[in-house]
Amino acid sequence: MPSYRLHYFPESGNSYKLALMLVLCGQSFEPVWTDFGGGITRTAAWRANVNPMGEIPVLEEDGVRLTQTGPILLQLAARYGKFGGADARERFEILRWLFWDNQKMSGFMATYRYRRAFTPTPDEKVQAFLRARIDDFLAILAGEVAQRPFIIGDEPTVADLSLCGYLSFPMEESGYDLAVRFPPVAAWLQRIAALPGWRAPYDLLPGQRLPRHV
C-alpha cells in the first residue's frame, strides 16, 4: 500500500479535504506542517522543492508529489473504490460539482474566511462583495442538498468532501451560522460528519495555528 505525507497548514480547507478523504478510506498519513503564515510557500526554494504552483496542500505518495486537490481526490477514489460514483452519469456529476466548488464555493469562502479571521484589517467593501457571492452559492447548495442526502444522490462522493471543506471549520472564523441561515446545508454537513471515521478539521490537522483576529 502507498505511504502518504501531507504538506498542509491547519486552517487550509483544501488540506482538510485530502486528510478527510484519506481517513475515510482507512489510510494514514504523515502530517507535514507548513509555515504558510510565514510565507514559506512564496519562496523560490519551496516552489523548487515542493510545489512550483506555490500552493498547499501537497500529497506525497511514495515520494511522488501530487498537487491540486480535485484531481487527487479523484485518484484516491479510483484507487480505493470509494466516493467515486457508481456509473458514468454520477462521475460526470462529480466533475460538475468539483469544478463548481473550486471556482465558486471553496474559492470564495477560502478568501473571505482568511481575510475575515486571519488578517487584522480586511477591506469591508471587498468582504461585502465576497459575502454576497457566498450567500448565493450557499443558497444554491442548500437547494440541492434539501432534495437528497448528498450532492449527487443517496451516497456521498468526493464532490461532498470537496464542498464541505471550507464549511466545516468553526463558525467564528467565517461568521456564518449555517444552522440558522441555511439549514439544509447544516443538515448535510451533519450527514457527512456521521460517516465512519469522520473527524473535524483541527482534529485531523494539528500544528501551530495562524493568529486569529475574530
UniProtKB/TrEMBL annotation:
Gene3D superfamilies: 1.20.1050.10, Glutaredoxin. Residues 87-214 form the GST C-terminal domain. Residues 2-84 form the GST N-terminal domain. This is Glutathione S-transferase family protein.
